[in-house]
Design brief:
With about 160 residues, this protein is an alpha+beta fold. Helices cover about 25% and strands about 25% of the residues. The chain is built from 3 helices and 10 strands; from the N terminus they run αββββαββαββββ.
Amino acid sequence: MPLLDAVLRESARMNASETISLRCKALQGYTFADGFSVRKGDIVCTPLRAMGHDASVVDQPHLFRPERHLTLDSSPSHRMTGTEYTANTPHYPFWGLGKEACPGRFYIALVIKSVLAHMLHNYEFRLADDKTEPMAFTWRTTRIPSRRNFLLVRKREI
C-alpha cells in the first residue's frame, strides 16, 4: 500500500498534531561546533512542524504532494514503492527516532489504515462550506482542529 503510506506521511507532515517532538533532557552540558551550547538539565526538542514546512528540507512544503514519498522501481512493471508511514528518518521524526521511537506505531498505523479503508469505502465526505478560516489552531505545542469547521458524512448507496 505505498500510495496510502505516502498520503498518510504527507498528511502527518502537513498537519502534525504536535509542533515539537523528541523532547530530551540534557544529562550533561554540551557545546556544538558552531558554539551553541546546552546546559545540564535543559530540555531540547525537535521542531517537527517547522521541519515539515521548511523549504530547505521539503520542496514546495505548502503543497500537499504525497508523490514526494514515492518512487517507481526499475523493474519492467515499474512497481510503485515508497517510504512506509511508520519509517523514521532525521527529516521525519513523526514517531520519534532511533531506539526511542514509538513501539506501537506499527499497530496504530494498521488501525488507521483499516478505519480509513472502511470509512472511504462506506461513506462520502465533504466540508459543510468553503470557509477561508484555518482548519486548525495551535495551543502551546498542540495543533487542534477548529470548532468552526464541519465535515458532513453520508453513508454511500452501495
